[in-house]
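Lab notebook: predicted structure, single chain.

Context: the supervisor wants predicted structures on file for every construct in the current expression panel, including those that have not yet been purified. This is the next one on the list. No modifications to the sequence; it matches the entry in the shared construct table.
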Amino acid sequence: SSHFTVELISRQVRAVLIRYKIHFSYIELIKKRTNIIMDIAKKMMKALIAGYVLTLVMLLILTYVIKKFTLDEKTVDSIIGAVYLVGSFLGGMFAAWLAGRRRLVAGMFYGGLYMAILIIISSVMMKAPVYDTSSMVVKVLTGMVSGAIGGFFSP
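Prediction complete. Output recorded below exactly as produced.
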């Protein structure tokens, strides 16, 4: 009877230890995944900052060109759109280069985030939505495609 009790307790202790071992392995897995996500977020922030700095430089050049030459509003709007696409492309290249793997996905994610942030900043600055919903979706998708192409061509 006492042998049976010791064996039963031993089984219960093993079961508890196995549960805790599994529990600790889940904690380790969560920590590992959290570290990976934080690393990706840091790299994406670096890429976004670089992309916005490049966009700012291109817009400053555009400002100089507008002052130097007479350009109509439609042409300026088209050039600004092209600047955003080039910023998305170059930032997507940089994001993919930092990511090192899954470059197309990194570039696509960057491009969508880049354009979404631009739309949010524009809406806040104008104190009203700048685009209707379908235009916003098209702009974000265009940014995603541009970023993905940049990711595809990243070194």
